[in-house]
Every structure is written in C-alpha cells, then in structure tokens.
Design a protein that fits this description.
Blueprint lengths: L10 E7 L16 H21 L4 E7 L11 E4 L5 H10 L5 E5 L7 H7 L7 E5 L5 E6 L17 H11 L4 E3 L9 H10 L4 H13 L1
Parallel strand pairs: 1-2, 1-4, 2-3, 5-7
Antiparallel strand pairs: 4-6, 5-6
Helix pairs in contact: 1-6, 5-6
Length: 214
C-alpha cells in the first residue's frame, strides 16, 4: 500500500479505440448508423478523458488502438496498444507504470473524477476492482502493477470479472470494490447510461440521435 488519499499520485490508464466508423461500437448498429455509433464512441471517450483530467493523478495515459484526432484534449499522454488479445493489451498498459495505477476503458462516460480518485487511493487496499453488470469489469487498480495478473484471463465472456477478481485475491492482495458501472455496448446500455448521466456529451448526443430517428 504505497499512496495516501491526500497526495496526487499514480497513473490513470484509459484503454480505447479511436472512434472510427465501422471499427467502434458496432453492436449499436443497425439502430444507429456506423457514423452515429462512432460519434457516440467519441462522445463517451471525451467524457471519460474529461473525468481523467479532473482526477488527481501524477500521469494520465491513453493506450490507443488507432490514431489520435481532434477529440484528444491536452494533458493526455498517448501510447499505441500492443498486438494480441485484450488480456495482453491490458497487461501491457500496466507494464507502462512504475507505481500505483488505475485502468479503465472508454465505455463508461458516466464515470466521475471522484470515483477515479477513490480508485487511486491505495491507503487501505492493494487493489481496486470495478465490476460491470455484464460480468466483466470497468476498472482495475493495482498498488503494485503486475502484468501477469491479467495474462490468460478470458476476456469478453460472462465470467471475466469473476476470474479477474479471483486472480487478485489468490495473489494475496487485499481487494476493495468500486461501484458497478455499465459499459455502453448495446442500444439498451446506451439508454441506461445516458439516463444516469444526462449532462454528459454522450447523453446529449444520444438524445439528439434518438430524436432524429423518431
């Protein structure tokens, strides 16, 4: 346990795809066009990066699959994702860190700076785990990052979160849970997330797009 809540320390990692039509949020189609789905992905990513910039951290890193664009705000370090499965890419993100780190994705635009600050406070735990309703996880925090904790974890299946959390406890780490957050994967997810965070870019754009198709 290497940080206290009072000191801005640690790294915030965001793992994301560049919001390119046809490459992101494909499960939102055909309700939305590929261009609209990419727009929602871009809005969600901007909301996420806004929260990251407002949270206390020593370093803020976007691990990006694709090229950065005008949506990228200042103050975010960009590194390319490595090749391989999602477990390898998440492990590689943690390998960038020499101290405490919290990793999140681009699919939770409802995330707040306060939640991120909590996930970087390792004064009373060795690890943070943020469960998602689909059985995965939206956040993973490690006081002492170890990429091996992620390698081999089956990703994007209903038991991903259970396996990952078990990895943490079996390593001897104390684990605390962050509140569950829903990833935006399907049109129903989009409706629920927009309702929870109506002031976000994501929710505003979602309302505009839904009004246009009525």
């Amino acid at each position: 346990m290497s940080t206290s809540a009072a000191e801005p320390a640690g790294t915030l990692l965001v793992v994301a795809k560049a919001p390119v039509p046809g490459r992101v949020k494909t499960r939102l189609t055909p309700y939305f066009t590929p261009q609209q789905a990419a727009g929602l992905a871009r809005a969600a990513l901007r909301d996420t990066l806004d929260a990251v910039l407002a949270a206390p951290a020593r370093r803020r890193v976007l691990c990006l699959d694709g090229a950065p664009g005008p949506w990228l705000p200042a103050g975010i370090e960009v590194v390319p994702q490595c090749a391989g499965g999602l477990d390898a890419r998440l492990a590689a993100a943690f390998a960038l860190c020499d101290g405490p780190a919290l990793l999140i994705g681009m699919d939770t635009p409802q995330v707040t700076p306060e939640l991120l600050a909590e996930g970087l406070d390792f004064s009373r735990t060795d690890a943070w785990f943020g469960p998602a309703p689909d059985g995965g996880f939206w956040a993973l925090g490690l006081a002492e990052p170890d990429p091996a904790l992620l390698l081999g974890v089956p990703m994007s299946v209903p038991h991903t979160g259970r396996v990952q959390r078990l990895r943490l406890t079996e390593s001897g780490r104390t684990v605390r849970d962050l509140p569950a957050l829903r990833d935006v994967d399907t049109p129903d997810d989009a409706v629920r997330v927009a309702a929870r965070a109506p002031a976000t870019r994501f929710a505003v754009l979602h309302a505009e797009l839904c009004a246009a198709v009525r």
